[in-house]
């Protein structure tokens, strides 16, 4: 059984490991050096101070994935727009965990008073994230061409947006 709950400090090593997998093996993120647990702790604390959701999916006592939403851009006028992130542990994809995480994240962003939720998705050839977001009503809002260079190739990003109110 999968339980979606707020992140706890004890979850952060698993969160860091999940993200490190994507940083080092994929173009799902444009980061090139995985953040350490201290950086994740600072991120979690910053999200909590801002009233933004940070959730984990737990299965059999292990973190199977996580999601969070933070302010889309730092300027004050963007304060009602959040950007989401959803990552699953290797071997835990294709089982509905991402759907559970995103569903709870959308509800939490709405409850936090956000007006818009934006997904910035690297278009590296795997449509899973776009399909997941579309299932929740996100619509494609644009494409930024060749804005990231990782693993020897140029990558587009697709912007998807969901109006929460």
TrEMBL record:
It holds the Pfam family Acetyltransf_1. InterPro entries: Acyl_CoA_acyltransferase, GNAT_dom. This is Phosphinothricin acetyltransferase. It comes from the Bacteria. GO terms for molecular function: acyltransferase activity, transferring groups other than amino-acyl groups. Residues 2-165 form the N-acetyltransferase domain. It comes from Nonomuraea pusilla. Keywords: Transferase. The lineage of its organism: Bacteria, Bacillati, Actinomycetota, Actinomycetes, Streptosporangiales. PROSITE patterns: GNAT (PS51186). Gene3D superfamilies: 3.40.630.30.
